[in-house]
Amino acid sequence: MLRLLIALCILLTACGAPRPVVKIALVAPFEGRLRQVGYEAFPAMRLAIRERIAAGGAGGVHVTFIAYNDDGDPATAARIARNVTLDPEVVAVIGHLVPSTTLAALPVYTQAGLPVLAPSVPANALPRDPLVFRMGPAAPSRNLQTSNAPCATLDPSWAATGWPFGACIADAPPVGELPAAQQALAAFTELSLGPPPGPRSIVAYDATNVLLDAIALDAQVRSLPTRAGVADALRRVRHNGLLGQITFDRDNAWADAPAWVYRR
């Protein structure tokens, strides 16, 4: 089964002499029962990068975007994580968008000094670590929103870890309920070749922009961003995302991350 789904080299600066490359990695399921998760996230990330190019780039650096399939399987996720860490050009990871696979992969990343943006997992279900940036809401959430969509429309990637029994909660609403997301993801189907965006598209779009902001901040300090530099920059990012202003507290958690209650 194909583990490396796709790799895209994205130029985030004006044409000129070749410069060293940094990579950001997306790891998510693109096959199996959770494949919807990856296919919602991947085009959104591409879209965020494309828009950053049009806006002038990420601090004048070249960014290679690389995406890996973990099948939604913890053992595979840990193995893929090891492959990602062995590439010295990878400065940060967004993944794995599923609680079980995220937990399996985190020790591999942190041991290698690789910062991880971890959306779509409850913050209190993940370890506190200087390299783990928890984008999911904590339970109970202090920023609880209501969705008009039924629970049945939720993809199976969001586990109710840490939430009250009977709760049907996700970290993002359907795109149609968020006007800013509708506008930002208007070109999504152009990149997905048909399938529409979903809640994971909103999360992936925000996470990508947060990471690009961090790369740009680190590029102000050094000509070539590093893993440690990007981790430090993530602590200083203030990004006005589709889901709100994203900042990380002293424990690398997004304290104001919203949680959306879907109707039964």
Describe the structure.
This protein has 264 residues and is an alpha/beta fold. It has a single domain, classed as Response regulator (Rossmann fold, 3-Layer(aba) Sandwich). Helix content is 32%, strand content 21%. It has 7 helices and 11 strands. The chain has helices at 35-54, 74-85, 99-111, 179-184, 188-192, 199-219, 227-234; strands at residues 4-11, 21-28, 62-69, 90-95, 116-118, 132-134, 144-150, 169-170, 239-241, 244-246, 259-263. The strands form 3 sheets. Strands 1-3-2-4-5-6 form a 6-stranded mixed sheet, sandwiched between helices. Strand 2 (21-28), helix 1 (35-54) and strand 3 (62-69) form a beta-alpha-beta unit. Helix 1 packs across helix 6 (199-219) and helix 6 (199-219) crosses helix 7 (227-234). The longest helix has 21 residues, at 199-219. The protein is globular and about 50 Å long. It starts with a strand and ends with a strand. 52% of the residues are buried. The model is unreliable at 1-15 (pLDDT under 50).
